[in-house]
Write a structure and sequence with these properties.
alpha+beta, nine-stranded antiparallel beta sheet, seven-stranded antiparallel beta sheet, 8 helices, 23% helix, 30% strand
């Protein structure tokens, strides 16, 4: 009987082509505080950055609902009359948190989880590209994108540091010199005013929403063996890196709703970044990350007369074959580890608990607002927490439930 052995494959997701705009083909990184999404572009790349605490308060007016009891009776009456759609709509609008319908009359539920922005990388256009590979190492929480462009090897690695909590990356060019523009941007949003601040080796993007929520998204570069300057790209500052051996990137986010000065916090965090070697930083992160992921290994006995899967097939090809009936015990182990991986990335280090899309999202209106749904969606990601030895991830959910108690007491009294 053949058995799938622990050879790293159950911790690996990889693709032969860039994700382009396919969110389901991107690679996700997270440390519970920051989420990063890697698309793996060649001439242009973007790393979407999310922050666990970045939630707006445009629609919500308060947690105390004076009309809750009266509306609950109306909802029950509509249900008994069989008018379920009306009951559902009334419950959305009238129960729980009070909505500010003057702001968004057509939206229900709390404000959606929104992105902080993205890191933009612009490389010289490549005429030929070969040996492309975009890979996620789930055991260590590290992504890598590699390819040969016009005969020159290019490689990028990113991770969301489990120890220092910022996002880190490194760009390298073997056999040539690295030329790249690097900047920050955010999806177009008429309700968020953006300004930029330039500091030594840093660019800060400052976002301010009309209801008073504000945040700072900062990026620092460390250039090895090349030249660095900040240029004006249509009113947006960008780093112009020329003839570098490698470039290190460090990013962090903070917001004003936590009683902190976000610019001061981000600046201080980025000033500390780069003081130890990138390799030491990545090794320490990988050691911490794998201390969680390596706790559980899944081995699945392969069927009789099973033919080993062609290792040249990427995850997308294997998944398509599997859905078409091909026996592939390995794809089940990858799926199993991916469930553990996204839970760990989204619910550790004191951040918010796992919500609908985890700690990732690039849209201002993500599916179902990517918020907290208390029917079953808030609990479901944690079903595997204890059985797969990730008990620490439940702390975020427990804190969240405890935070609801005061408002729950008030609601029960009324």
């Amino acid at each position: 009987m053949k058995t799938m052995k622990k050879d790293g494959q159950q911790y690996t997701i990889w693709y032969k082509t860039p994700a382009q705009e396919m969110w389901t083909r991107t690679l996700h990184l997270g440390n519970g505080i920051m989420g990063a999404t890697v698309f793996g572009g060649i001439s242009e790349e973007k790393i979407v950055i999310n922050y666990t605490h970045l939630w707006r308060h445009a629609k919500t007016m308060g947690r105390v609902n004076e009309d809750c009891t009266k509306i609950l009776q109306q909802v029950r009456s509509l249900i008994f009359q069989g008018r379920l759609r009306e009951a559902n709509l009334l419950a959305y609008r009238g129960l729980g948190t009070q909505w500010n319908l003057d702001v968004h009359e057509d939206w229900y539920g709390p404000d959606p989880f929104v992105p902080a922005g993205q890191i933009d990388l612009i490389f010289p256009e490549a005429k030929e590209c070969a040996e492309y590979r975009n890979e996620l190492d789930m055991l260590h929480g590290i992504s890598s994108t590699s390819y040969i462009a016009d005969g020159v090897g290019e490689k990028r690695v990113f991770f969301t540091d489990m120890n220092r909590l910022f996002t880190a990356g490194k760009l390298e060019s073997t056999g040539g010199r690295l030329n790249v523009q690097i900047g920050l941007s955010r999806v177009e949003d008429e309700e968020c005013e953006l300004t930029f601040v330039q500091k030594e080796h840093m660019i800060l993007l400052k976002g301010s929403f009309f209801e008073g929520v504000a945040y700072v998204f900062g990026l620092k570069v460390v250039v090895n063996g090349g030249e660095e300057e900040i240029i004006d790209a249509g009113g947006i500052p960008r780093f112009q890196i020329t003839d570098a051996e490698s470039v290190e990137l460090y990013a962090y986010v903070e917001m004003n709703q936590r009683g902190l000065d976000p610019e001061e916090v981000v600046t201080k965090k980025l000033e500390e970044a780069g003081k130890i070697s990138f390799e030491e930083l990545m090794e320490a992160h990988g050691k911490t990350f794998s201390s969680y992921m390596s706790r559980v290994e899944l081995n699945i006995e392969a069927p009789e007369n099973w033919t080993r899967i062609d290792e040249k097939k990427d995850t997308q090809e294997r998944l398509e074959d599997f859905l078409n009936g091909t026996d592939d015990p390995g794809i089940n182990t990858v799926y199993y580890q991916y469930g553990r991986y996204i839970l760990l990335c989204s619910s550790i280090n004191g951040g918010k608990p796992f919500h609908l899309n985890g700690i990732w999202g690039e849209s201002l209106k993500p599916a179902y607002n990517s918020d907290f749904h208390h029917d079953i969606n808030s609990e479901a990601p944690y079903w595997i927490a204890e059985t797969t030895n990730l008990s620490e991830t439940t702390e975020a959910l427990i804190r969240y439930v405890e935070s609801l108690i005061p408002a729950g007491k008030e609601a029960a009294k009324k």
